[in-house]
Amino acid sequence: MNLNKKVFIGFLLFIIIPLFVLGSAVYTVSQQLIEKKYGDLTEVTLQAISRNIYYMFKEANYFSDFWMVKDSIQGIYRTIDSTKPNTDPLSSYDLNTFDTLLRGSILTYSPVQSVVIYNNAGKSFSAGRTSGNAIPWATIQQSLAFKHIQELNGSPLWIGPSEFKEFGSGRGEFYQARMVKDFWTMDNLGYMLLKFKFNELDQIFKSFNTNEQSSKRYLLINKNGLIFYDNKQSLDGANVLQLTQGKLDLGRNNYSFQANFQNEKSLISLYHLNINQMGVQDWSVVSVTSWKYVAGEIETIMKLVAGITFICLFFALVYNLVFVRRIIQLILRMLSSMKKVERGDLTTRMEVSGKDETTALARGFNSLVVRVEDLLDEVKRQQDRKNKAELMLLQAQIKPHFLFNTLESINVLAIQNQGKKVSQMVIRLGNLLRIGMENREEITLKQELEHLRSYLEIQEFRFEDQFRYTIEAPPELLNEEVLKLTLQPLVENSLQHGFEPIDYMGLITIKVVDEGERIGLYVTDNGIGISNEKLTKFHYKTELETPFHEILESNEERRGLGVSNVADRVRIQYGEHYGMFICSLEGQGTTMKVVIPKRKGDIS
């Protein structure tokens, strides 16, 4: 993974994601705190509402209880029971009397809209503020509420609008149904059904909703979630469980939660009235408040902060992509350029643009590469001068050495008064010196072989009838270039090191072999050879680790100096892939091989 990706991933992991997680956590916690605080406040409000509702029903029950035990009301039951048969209608007198009595007693309480009296046989009498038909006794008996009325045995049962379809669904119309007992004997006289219209409910909820008319809703529901009172008058008869998508749990104690209510995010609070002793069976109040109102300015501030945070993150991302990435790209380009320089491409340069520190860095890198290039050039020049000096020194060592040996041979012939041979040797020595004194470091292979042949002819005067030689060279290789005085020191080593102690005819074979891109120069003799102990010391790899003349005995050092010089010259001139190799078997002879590259020269 490159540096650019690492920095971008680090930016995401250590800046973007932590800020996002932190923002989400703060938002979530703040939502929960707002929900809890406002839920607690709403619970206090619902407690107050519950108390007001409690007092409203308590007052209604008190009024109902007060008149139910009065002789005038209980007399109506006795009069109805005394009518024979029960199917006979009441007399006009009784009807007027009962109506006047009820209007002067129960109907004096303003919330009561009508009252219906049933005896045990189902005969009834009703009176009300408006005309209307009373609910038939048979309908009441078939209602699910009738069983509850009997179970309460004289205590009131309150029925909300639409709670039981038999009792109607008028807005704000509540029914109180109860069994009526004889005050003295506690016998069951019959049943009473009172219809109430509590306008007071509107006042109760309005007093807690003065400034929130458009944002707050109060619902009065039963244990099944049926809404029989909505302060906004639009959800009467609906089911709150469906409106909250099943998130409202009526079995839980008072609590608050967030949910969508009529496609709007809202805070919903549930509060159980707990006034079953009033005849209200498991009713609850539900408060629905728009979350916009709950969060209020805090929500706006948080959204503003979130917006600013996202804008900052956006600019941070832009900064990362534009500025940081530019610096990283510079580092990557510099790294790529450094790798090129490391591979030896000193022409590599970085683009210089701008006026900041990155430009100075690029300019400094370019200056450094130029300086390194100059230093390497200087090192190469110094190395070339050193190599040339070494070559000149090696040649200077060969020439005196060769002249010394040749002059020694001429001196021997002169002592022996062999003037003709001395003349021939001097002529051949002149040919040798003419080639050896040329300014060129390399000559053609043809010239090198002519020089070698002159040398061998000179040596024949010294070692007369002691050795023979052969020279083999393909004609197509005669114009290849070779370092001058390459073969002569090797042949000289064979003559003076390999042949002097022998008592048989020596043989020297000089062979030139085409080896593809290289040329192999072989000098083979049948002399005494080199011992294994001395041969193992001659490790020729990339350079001659131990000079050949140091391997030989001290009295043989002068003789091995020429071979060592040849090996060093070839290595210095052609490089580590070329050089000299020695193969020898003690008592049978030695083969020396010089490997040089093919390099065409002019035939002279």
From TrEMBL:
Pfam families: dCache_1, HAMP, HATPase_c, His_kinase. It catalyses: ATP + protein L-histidine = ADP + protein N-phospho-L-histidine. InterPro entries: Bact_2-comp_sensor_kinase (IPR050640), dCache_1 (IPR033479), HAMP_dom (IPR003660), HATPase_C_sf (IPR036890), HATPase_dom (IPR003594), Sig_transdc_His_kin-like_C (IPR004358), Sig_transdc_His_kin_internal (IPR010559). One of its GO terms (molecular function) is kinase activity. It comes from the Bacteria. Residues 325-377 form the HAMP domain. The chain crosses the membrane at residues 7-27, 304-324. It is a multi-pass membrane protein. SMART domains: HAMP. Keywords: Cell membrane, Coiled coil, Kinase, Membrane, Phosphoprotein, Transferase, Transmembrane, Transmembrane helix, Two-component regulatory system. Residues 372-399 form a coiled coil. It is found in: Cell membrane. It is an enzyme of class 2 (transferase). Its EC number is 2.7.13.3. This is histidine kinase. It comes from Paenibacillus qinlingensis.
